[in-house]
Amino acid sequence: MHDREQIFRALLGTMDQGFCIVEVIFDELDQPVDYRFVEVNGAFERDTGLQGAVGRRMREMRPDHEESWFQTYGRIARTGVSERFESYAAALRRWYDVHAIRVGAPELHRVAIVFDDVTSRKAAETALRQSEARFRMLFDSMSEGFVIADLLRDATGQVYDLRYVEVSPSFQRLTGRTPQQVVGHTTREVFGEVEDHWVETWRQAGRGIHSRTEGYSGALGQWFQASTTPLSENRIAVLFTDISEQHRRELGLKDARTKAEAASASKSKFLAAASHDLRQPVQSLILFAQVLASRLAGHPAEPVVAKMSGALDTFTDLLDSLLDISKLDAGLVVPDVRAHPVTAILQELADAYQPRMAAKGLRLKRHLTDAWAMVDATLLRRIVSNLLDNALKYTPQGGVLLACHRVGEMVRIEVVDTGVGIPAEHLDAIFEEFVQVGEIGREHKQGMGLGLATVKRLANLLNYSLSVRSCPGHGSRFTVDIPPTAARANPEAAPAADTIARRVLVVDDDSTIVEGMKALLEAAGYEVLTASQAEEALTLLQGERAPDAVVTDFRLGGAFTGIRLIEEARRRTGRKLPGLVITGDTTVRPGAEISVLHKPVPPELLTKALADICH
Fold it and tell me: Cβ neighbours of residue 534 under 8 Å, at least 6 residues apart?
């Protein structure tokens, strides 16, 4: 008997489960009202938190212990029928898995209890149930389609299909297939053939890769966006939505954008192609206006001619700006980069703008250091002349500085004015088309707001850095930096004409242009020969009245261009005749020692250019 007691004690000490023997206490009405602890093991205190329980009553230790526990143990003590149950002990704040059995004589009312603390498991089960409930609520209410499926592989392990395990209620709305038609079946059984892009997403999931795909389903005639997530080696989850309407809208927008871009390109190409024809009559008007002004000097009609010339100048500026933008937008301007003395280009522009500045009461200062660079001289002139025009328009008093100097290997050009300035919030906008900061209504005498837009496009085309700093009321500083790759050039001696030319051959197939040019150059002191075709011009190269210089249109008809005419004239005469090409086609570039001016050309610029090449 002693040995058995020792074995019992040893078992109690090694049990991982809680154990106790209680004596149920009944009242005078034979109702269980409490119990006293007779025996407990070491795990008891750990799983209940009750210390020194042996010999003490439960109500003494936990007065708020639920009545149900007393009733259960009283029933077992009275009937002798063991019970197994799980219940929550609120007073102990724990869940227990309990196995209780009566021990000893019935009149002792003793019950042996073996129990496990299952609070953690119950909490996990509760959390799982709550999570499942939330998942199910989301699963049933979501507008997107949701699928759980098993991947099917061929003998080589390659994924080729999937079998549906579960689908959301929205699956039917998006695909027209009920869950009963889908679950347990493969995609090909339900929908027939499957596009390769969907199979590829399944294969990626089979390799553990999450993917997001947009694609077309031929079986359904719809576009879908699908997010595929691997759940295990052979199970995936797919969240998908119908984007057919969005796709149609995007296609519509893309089509509209394509048409708009095509229309814009067509407009730009039309204006670019029409450039020559538009410039021709303007050139004639300019020439005749100049001749008329000289002949009416002192006449009562002289102010009318001056107003007409002013209006013509404004029109010329607007036409130049519009056609320049169109050429650039159409991609028809191809830079002709050569070594040029940048300082000479700027000096020439300063000379041309000096009278205009003075007429407005402005001082034009120059700070020009010697600098050569690889540049397109024509395009660089257009950049700087637009900046000078801008300074002239928006500087009511004070002056303008044109500067050029080197910054390391880079050539920097600056146009600084003391004008109205530009607010900081408008500094980016000034390079957009048709923007005139500070103008309530666009004033035509101020242009169309295309000058700086042209500067920006040309700077981008030539890879120049363009910047501006400004202070309202104090003026602006525009800076053009020519990068080192374009700034490395060695000065070359400018070619010299063989003689000083006084007899000029003018060639143009437009008789109006010829008449206007002849009148202008004769007024400037030149003897003028004229021709309307290249062949006619070549016949005038011999004899005592052979020309000393050639001024020609670029388009002469047939196989001849103005540049070819000048080259042929030089070959036939054996002289390096000065040559000047005047054209409305802004894509024309100078030839070897041949200058090019683009119509419409102001009379003073034409006569200056001719004088420069003739001396």
Answer: 507, 556, 557, 558, 560, 564, 565, 568
